[in-house]
Amino acid sequence: MIGILSAIFLPAILGFLVISILPKAQSEASLYEIIALSYPVGTFLLTLQMFVTGVLRVPVTINYLLPIILFEIVILSFITIRQKKQKQHASHNTFTPPPSPAHIKMIRKLLITLLSIWLIFKTGSIITDTWLRPIFAWDSWTNWAARAKIIFYSGAVSMEEMIKNYTHTSTLKTFIAYPLHTPLLQVWFALLSGKFDEVLVKMWSPFYLLSMVAYLFFFTKKQSGSLFSLLLCVIFISSPLLSFHATDVYSDLALSSFIFFALTSFYNVLKGKYAFLPLTVIFTCAAVFTKEEGLFFALPLLTSFFLYLFRNSHRELPYKKLIPMLSPLILIIPWFIYKFSGGYIIGLSNTEYNYSLDFIFFFKMITKTIYRIVLLDNFNIIFLFFPILIVVSGRPSREFLYLLFPLLCYALFFICLYSFVPFYHEHLTAITSCYRNMLTYYPATFFLTTILLIKIKSSHSL
């Protein structure tokens, strides 16, 4: 138990300290925001270090890894304490509901209590389910867990070592060049628990979901109060597929959280909080290091950011500090060097399927995809009502369009993939792949939905 708690809290502490020392972070970000962002930032920085040290032929073992992380935490703690004497965290202004009769206040408190209880039980059931059940999904094993187990027992990250230790099943070799964030995160949990326990190595997953729920709650509470924020959190976490993926080692949930936090950080940048620009870059790099699909979100997001810079060139922007703020982009360079040096342009190698990029248009895939997007069985009503809310909320602001552009491009990428590439049409289970890809942009879509609902609520003084 101590090992698992350490595996959870050490990355969270590392992430908290890294965020705290960013320029203006303590003045532009509230303590609650930093806490919600800490776990995803920390896990990415942790696995990236595991990857780099592994590529440098340093054994991926607890004896080498833990002292490095503890040393970093100690140094960052001294820096954070020194900065805290000079600056304080941004005040966390909360929404104050208008005066209302006593019976309305009582109903409001009752609803807050009931929603809080439901949310606690829901998150508790997800964590319990993760704790009780081992890795069980086929893709979890072939795509992510098999490599984690080999890295754990071999202590090596190199592709050569993985190929040597893999079985001769071509399915396992097919996914050997996939990004390593979630396999290395499983290794981290296995190292601190003392063995590769197929239950315990999954315990990182639900905390990505909890981080998103926490951030969504604090973001909404500042502008619309506790009742509205709890209601949105309940709707958000009640997605069946979201809850299911939080209990296994799929990378879709981790990718969805990094896309979510990249977009929320970019939202803060658009509001003039430039301390969130390095975080936007960090989360974008983390998305690329988690699944290859992340690259097709990263490129439109960077495009949207540079469009924002171009359109706002007349404003006072910190151009002199722009390069340092974008410097976290170098974090992803080692992964691309390692990947391309192995001859893998894309992660899916041609070993089992007759894989080709011959483009053949399948119109039916477009209609099938749109039909599944508007269904209510996996993602509630969000995808169905999101375009309706855009119309109802009135003319969208330019800032909202900057946020919508990368998300829309990312979603359209999958539709084009299903419609033009025969491999995805013929070999993949269309329903499974479609829903799992939708999961990766569901939280970010929910965030934009929240922005629209807050706008509508404020305009009608609800």
**So what's the overall shape?**
globular
Label the structural class.
Answer: mainly alpha
Determine the fraction of residues in helical runs and give it as a percent range: over 70%
What is the N-to-C order of secondary-structure elements (H for helix, E for strand)? Answer: HHHHHHHHHHHHHHHHHHHHH
The largest sheet, given as strand count, sense and whether it forms a barrel, is:
none
Low-confidence stretches: 348-354
Count of alpha/pi helices: 21
The radius of gyration over CA amounts to: 22 Å
* Average of pLDDT: 84
- Number of β-strand runs: 0
Rounded to the nearest angstrom, the distance between the terminal CA atoms is 46 Å
β-strand amount: under 5%
Count of domain modules: 1
Task: Give an account of the 3D structure.
- There is one protein chain.
- By secondary structure, the chain is an all-alpha fold.
- The chain has one domain.
- Helices cover 71% and strands 0% of the residues.
- It contains 21 helices and no strands.
- Helix 3 (31-55) runs antiparallel to helix 10 (205-237) and helix 12 (252-270) packs parallel to helix 14 (295-311).
- The longest helix has 33 residues, at 205-237.
- The chain is globular, with a radius of gyration of 22 Å.
- The termini are far apart.
- Mean pLDDT is 84; it is low at 348-354.
